[in-house]
UniProtKB/TrEMBL annotation, chain A:
Signal sequence extent: none
Organism per entry: Terasakiella brassicae
Protein name: Serine/threonine protein phosphatase
SUPFAM superfamilies xrefs: ATPase domain of HSP90 chaperone/DNA topoisomerase II/histidine kinase, GAF domain-like
CDD domains, per the entry: HATPase_RsbW-like
PANTHER family: STAGE II SPORULATION PROTEIN E, STAGE II SPORULATION PROTEIN E-RELATED
Annotated TM spans: none
UniProtKB/TrEMBL annotation, chain B:
Organism for this UniProt entry: Terasakiella brassicae
InterPro entries in UniProt: Anti-sigma_ant, STAS_dom, STAS_dom_sf
Gene Ontology molecular functions: anti-sigma factor antagonist activity
Listed name of the protein: Anti-sigma factor antagonist
Pfam family, one: STAS
PROSITE patterns registered for this protein in UniProt: STAS
Origin: domain of life: Bacteria
Signal peptide boundaries: none
Similarity remark: Belongs to the anti-sigma-factor antagonist family.
Residues annotated as domain STAS: 1-109
């Protein structure tokens, strides 16, 4: 009876202490996000309360499942000790989510003796409880040896430790959740910042007047689409639009890179086809696993005499739409998307270009977010829907037209399926010059194939120092086909003069850019083609001068026309530049000039 | 192109040799203007001109016009066939004063 009362009193006392310890610990955990320190405090209270020689807290990294000792108290210092999931008594306890009571450590197969070997400490009995809430286990608390030498841990000790451990586990899990929330918030803030920076990549509205306008609406904060345009110093407008495969931050990063390459390289590479080739090479060099970019690049030439020529190159992108005289024309992709096929060694990998004469019409480039976007009816807009809207608002400004297009696929702006980007360019605002010399599409150079037998292909820098060699080439080919001396000298002079015109007028002075000279023989005549890669020179610009007006300069064009039987200013079929086709009739049987 | 210059009785005599083209004509122009600008009479001997283009012709035209303003003489002499052909094509063969030899040119200026 006496014994029983004493036992009951002792149990009551111990429950009382246990409850107050639990309450104290829970309060500490609730008030802090600094779990490590709180765990350390709790550990020493628990160790003392349980009359243990030492204690340790282990936490598991839920991603790697490595269990690390984060705090120690008493007997041995093993902070930093790492255990595999399931290794040792602690690892097993974590893996099985069950407490362990080992009273005969030496004979327990799970005992991990390495620590004793290193520290010289003798482990007699071990108590271990998982830090777990329901099925989720985040670590364990381990106690070693009762302070009294002959005492061992018992089942009651295990029950108590398990109760305390679950309270600590709750605190650890709460702290981890709080940290995850903070991290999520931080990532969200960073995404917002990234989206803000991306928006600044887009050109300012009306940077190039009302001629060109674009819209980019991102389905998420950051976008995998972009458009850009800028004015070249000569007055032409460079524009581009791209769509990166995939969504999210990786697409956004690749978009940023592509947009930067476009703006940077575009300032010097003034052929859209070559530009796409260069961007492709760059993207392939730093390949991003399976990601690619579809893109359209183009140059619009609103200058007098250039008829609003648009040169377009399309790398795997949606067809470009031209609305002209109430009809639609499309220009599809000529090459693969960027970032997939690297250029062959030694080649520039330029994409093909098409030439478009808009004749007052408008050009529309868009991403598939527009055609695949859901309208109010629940169906995608499709290319037909795009054309329908454009026809309906044909007489509105570009800004209004694009607003209507984007509205059509975002009845609920917060529920966009994909990024939507549209770029539009109109030729309607270009002043028409009555005096300008018309060079129609039919006057592009289609005759190259039929122009006869090969005599010379010669490419050289547009510098005076190269003229001597160019003359020698022309002289050689004239003599080869049997021209007399007078004709030969005349032809050499005329071709030389034509090259000088290129250097002076097309390139605006000596340049490292090239002049391409080809000579072909046809029955009864020689055909010379002189091509440059300069911006288009309006044909009316190069005129022979009035010979009555005697002054230095301006003689060259007169000499060319005096010598040659046919002089034509043409447009190259591929790429930028000017092409001059000169024909000289020759009669190798007669001695003397064929033209007097 | 090579230029040889000598001065006889206030007349500067140039003898050109080789090719006068876009690369070399600036040198010719500078040399001609140096003398015509100070009112000297000039003879340009063109016997050795294997080739001349519009930029070379332009240098001659500019010097000729300057000398006329200064009322000094400017004569082309001993013109090679190829140079003559270019002057004809440019319809300048009737504009310049042309003499068959340099001696003829000197005589014409002294008379």
């Amino acid at each position: 009876m006496h014994m029983e009362t004493k036992l009951n009193e002792s149990i009551a006392f111990s429950i009382d202490r246990q409850v107050s310890l639990l309450a104290n610990m829970t309060a500490q955990f609730a008030n802090t996000l600094n779990v490590d320190e709180t765990l350390r405090n709790a550990l020493c209270e628990i160790t003392n309360y349980m009359n243990a020689e030492g204690g340790a807290v282990f936490l598991m990294d839920e991603a790697t499942q490595i269990i690390t000792c984060v705090a120690c108290y008493g007997a041995t210092e093993i902070t930093g000790l790492k255990l595999e999931y399931g290794q040792g008594i602690v690892g097993k306890s974590v893996a099985s989510n069950q407490g362990a009571l080992v009273r005969d450590v030496k004979n327990d197969p799970d005992f991990y003796g390495a620590v004793d070997d290193q520290t010289g400490f003798t482990t007699k009995s071990i108590l271990c409880a998982p830090l777990s809430v329901k099925d989720r286990c985040v670590g364990a608390i381990e106690l070693v040896n009762k302070k009294k030498a002959d005492e061992l841990f018992d089942e009651t000790d295990l029950k108590v430790l398990e109760t305390l451990a679950s309270s600590a586990a709750l605190a650890v899990i709460n702290a981890r959740m709080a940290r995850a929330l903070v991290e999520q918030e931080r990532v969200k803030r960073e995404l917002e910042l990234a989206a803000e920076i991306q928006r600044r990549f887009l050109p300012d509205a009306h940077e190039a007047g009302d001629t060109i306008f674009g819209i980019n609406k991102a389905a998420r904060g950051v976008s995998g689409d972009f458009f850009d345009y800028f004015k070249l110093p000569d007055g032409r407008i460079y524009f581009g639009l791209g769509d990166v495969s995939g969504k999210g931050i990786n697409a956004a990063l690749l978009m940023s890179k592509t947009a930067s390459l476009f703006r940077c390289l575009g300032k010097t590479v003034r052929d859209p086809g070559k530009l796409l080739g260069r961007i492709n090479a760059e993207l392939c060099e730093t390949a991003t696993h399976g990601m690619f970019v579809t893109m359209v690049a183009g140059i619009y030439d609103p200058r007098p005499g250039c008829e609003g020529l648009i040169r377009l190159a399309n790398a795997g992108h949606e067809p470009v739409l031209l609305f002209q005289n109430d009809t639609f024309k499309t220009y599809g992709a000529d090459g693969p998307p960027l970032g997939i096929v690297p250029p062959l060694p030694g080649e520039d990998g330029a994409y093909d270009e098409v030439q478009v004469f808009p004749q007052g019409g408008s050009l529309y480039i868009y991403t598939d977010g527009l055609t695949e976007g859901y309208t109010l009816t629940g169906h995608p807009l499709e290319a037909e829907g795009v054309q329908h809207i454009l026809r309906q608002y044909a007489h509105e400004s570009l800004t209004t037209q694009l607003d209507r297009l984007v509205e059509a696929v975002s009845p609920d702006p917060s529920a966009l399926r994909d990024d939507v980007t549209v770029l539009a360019l109109t030729d309607a605002l270009r002043p028409v010059h009555d005096s300008e010399t018309k060079v129609g599409q039919n006057e592009t150079d289609h005759g190259a194939e039929q122009d006869g037998d090969w005599l010379i292909d010669f490419k050289f820098p547009a510098r005076p120092g190269w003229m001597k060699l160019a003359r020698a080439c022309v002289r050689e080919s004239c003599q080869k086909v049997g021209c007399n001396e007078t004709d030969t000298s005349d032809i050499v002079l005329a071709v030389d003069e034509a090259c000088q015109n290129v250097i002076r007028h097309a390139y605006g002075g000596p340049s490292d850019e090239e002049i391409e000279l080809t000579v072909r023989q046809r029955p009864g005549r020689l055909v010379f083609r002189l091509r440059d890669f300069a911006p288009m020179v309006p044909p009316g610009f190069i005129k022979p001068r009035n010979l009555e007006d005697i002054r230095p300069g301006g003689l060259g064009t007169h000499l060319i026309q005096e010598v040659m039987d046919d002089v034509q200013y043409l447009r190259p079929t591929q790429g930028e530049g000017n092409l001059l086709r000169l024909v000289k009739n020759i009669d190798v049987n007669k001695k003397g000039t064929s033209k007097q | 192109m090579k230029i040889e210059t000598k001065e006889v009785n206030d007349i500067v005599i140039f003898e050109l040799d080789g090719e006068v083209d876009l690369e070399t004509s600036p040198t010719l122009r500078k040399n001609l203007l140096k003398h015509v600008n100070v009112g000297k009479s000039v003879i340009v001997g063109m016997n050795g001109v294997a080739y001349i283009d519009s930029s070379g012709i332009a240098s001659l035209v500019e010097a000729y016009q300057t000398s006329r303003r200064n009322s000094s003489g400017f004569v082309l002499a001993a013109i090679s066939d190829s140079a003559m052909r270019v002057l004809q094509l440019a319809r300048l063969d009737k504009v310049f004063t042309i003499q068959a030899t340099i001696d003829d040119a000197v005589r014409s200026l002294n008379s």
